[in-house]
Recover the amino acids of this structure.
């Protein structure tokens, strides 16, 4: 059974940093691309960042580029999102998502339960 | 960026109804489109990928169609468990983008 377990969410002041982690199990983590998707309270889904299986290539939404860094440790089956220079508009539930098989594209096959990040002074 | 427009934003329907919603895309994405279902307080769940491929374990009530710039998700006979919000997502190119969602409410 695929499981994705996020942690590291919480409250932060504007300008502060937080790091989210997502521990994966139930599949060969090192063979799949992964992404982070967020959802502000009462709003729709927004893709934030993605990383290929090896970690060699990363992608970012314009809204977070230069402030957030995605990374992975395949030896620990763990995906990370380092969030710096946080803004109030970053307040959201952050979902870790497993991307579909290589060659089939970037849809999100499985999702974690979400980690809540609240940015407020 | 590729823009995704879902319609309607809200749909009122009854159990047993056949419902269809639409996702329109600002440029051609072939069939690189997925559909998700989300219930309040829960993570989204993949229903359809590549426009019409049913994800394993998903009810045969759900079907997807379309290509290029216009796509549809159909629920053949609405069940109580289907009242939720549905999102489309393109994965033709980065940044990956979602539609604004269609909320299916009980009539």
């Amino acid at each position: 059974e695929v499981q994705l377990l996020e942690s590291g969410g919480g409250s932060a002041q504007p300008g502060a940093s937080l790091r989210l982690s997502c521990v994966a199990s139930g599949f060969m983590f090192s063979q799949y691309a992964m992404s982070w998707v967020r959802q502000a309270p009462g709003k729709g889904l927004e893709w934030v960042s993605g990383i290929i299986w090896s970690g060699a290539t990363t992608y970012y939404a314009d809204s977070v580029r230069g402030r957030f860094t995605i990374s992975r440790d395949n030896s620990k089956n763990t995906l990370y999102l380092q969030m710096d220079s946080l803004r109030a508009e970053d307040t959201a539930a952050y979902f870790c998502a497993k991307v579909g098989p290589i060659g089939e594209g970037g849809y999100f096959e499985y999702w974690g339960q979400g980690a809540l990040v609240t940015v407020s002074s | 960026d590729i823009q995704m427009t879902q319609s309607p934003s809200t749909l009122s329907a009854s159990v047993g109804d056949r419902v269809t919603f639409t996702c329109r895309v600002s440029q051609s994405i072939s069939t690189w489109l997925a559909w998700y279902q989300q219930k309040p307080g829960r993570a989204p769940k993949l229903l359809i990928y590549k426009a019409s491929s049913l994800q394993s374990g998903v009810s045969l009530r759900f079907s997807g169609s379309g290509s290029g710039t216009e796509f549809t998700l159909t629920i053949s006979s609405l069940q109580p468990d289907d009242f939720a919000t549905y999102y489309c997502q393109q994965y033709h190119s980065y940044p990956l983008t979602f539609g604004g969602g269609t909320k299916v409410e009980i009539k």
